[in-house]
Structure of Protein SDA1:
Amino acid sequence: ETAKELGDLALFLAHVAPFYPNDLADLPDQIGGLLDTNARALPSGLRVHLVQVLILLVNRKIVDLEDTMELFMELQVIGDRAVKKLAFSHIVHSIRRMNQKHKNEAKNRKLQGILFKLVQVCNILHLV
């Protein structure tokens, strides 16, 4: 019950964030930090809500995709199918949408660098 209320409150704050940019400037960092440090301990429904919050903030251009991509890729290994699907589909959809009209090579290289680094880390972890 408390997790649902917290998730709903976080979604509400994400929806009103464009209207209160000074007051809610640290919302993305707080949500990202919570997911980064406590994702495994949080209930699945709350994890989904928090990922939805970050996706909404990216879609409203309050947060850059690069800022959330590493976190979304790290969430792929926690074993929550709904979160994995939501985060992965958002990354793919965002990159596809970003390159739809014209390719932004600088941004693409930066995203590729993030993904390549994460793939290398995953390979190293599997070898150990």
About this structure: The CA atoms of residues 46 and 81 lie 13 Å apart. The chain has a mean pLDDT of 86. Residues 105-127 form the longest helix (23 residues).
